[in-house]
Amino acid sequence: xxxxxxxxxxxxxxxxxxxxxxxxxxxxxxxxxxxxxxxxxxxxxxxxxxxxxxxxxxxxxxxxxxxxxxxxxxxxxxxxxxxxxxxxxxxxxxxxxxxxxxxxxxxxxxxxxxxxxxxxxxxxxxxxxxxxxxxxxxxxxxxxxxxxxxxxxxxxxxxxxxxxxxxxxxxxxxxxxxxxxxxxxxxxxxxxxxxxxxxxxxxxxxxxxxxxxxxxxxxxxxxxxxxxxxxxxxxxxxxxxxxxxxxxxxxxxxxxxxxxxxxxxxxxxxxxxxxxxxxxxxxxxxxxxxxxxxxxxxxxxxxxxxxxxxxxxxxxxxxxxx
Length: 322
What we know:
Elements: H1 7-22, E1 32-37, E2 40-45, E3 52-59, E4 63-66, E5 77-82, E6 91-97, E7 104-106, E8 117-119, E9 122-126, E10 132-141, H2 151-154, H3 164-173, E11 176-178, E12 191-195, H4 197-205, H5 209-230, H6 236-249, H7 260-277, H8 297-311
Parallel strand pairs: 3-10, 4-5
Antiparallel strand pairs: 1-2, 5-6, 6-7, 6-12, 8-9, 9-10, 10-11, 11-12
Helix pairs in contact: 3-4, 5-6, 5-7, 5-8, 7-8
């Protein structure tokens, strides 16, 4: 998905990359901070001009999520994952089921909300330092990779990313369910969402320097141009999904310093196309539209207008990035 790189893009890319290095935005500076809690990946973002947040995901080891009752283990609490015709794609209604089936209790996804302010699947609390805050996500490990996500392992990839080793590692990392339901569902308080956070973390860490910088620039564009208009409907999560797709689709040889601006424009073009159609597939479960939660109606129309304006600006939008 490439065409000829405009000549002036190369010189601008070199300067832009050097500026990002100077202010601390490079792969070497480990923009993505990684911690491990209970053998579970944690990621957060820090850097000049960005609020210093920490995201912590705690794996609840006393509960096992299963797709069939036969997978239940007597020594554990077992959560049966149920996906019916009324459940939105990417969300699940979960029953907490004992091995002897003496009772079945629908587990509400609000059970951890007493520790702080709720934001999506996370509970947010402020530390003593006003510039540092933490989002805590409680996650339950699934016994196996969801069937609708098997396409990710079989997908035909032309440019060698993720690598075969990374793909195989994803099987070992597995997936989790986190406490968030679809905002437009009548049973939102009962629905849970699949999370592939550990694999996402490992894939993000594998980004080469230019890929990481495009990711950072997308987040800056979001903060400067998109968030003031549509709020947090367009999130950092969307930026991450875009980068996974673009890293798959753009050949490895193009992710170099002098092509930084070109790769950014390619990403914005794809973002604009998805916003126009109203469908952006989640990278691990392609039938899940990540726009169907918040980027709909007027919000989506405004996003399309913003992206159209950015693409028609001949990259002068870079001058206004904060």
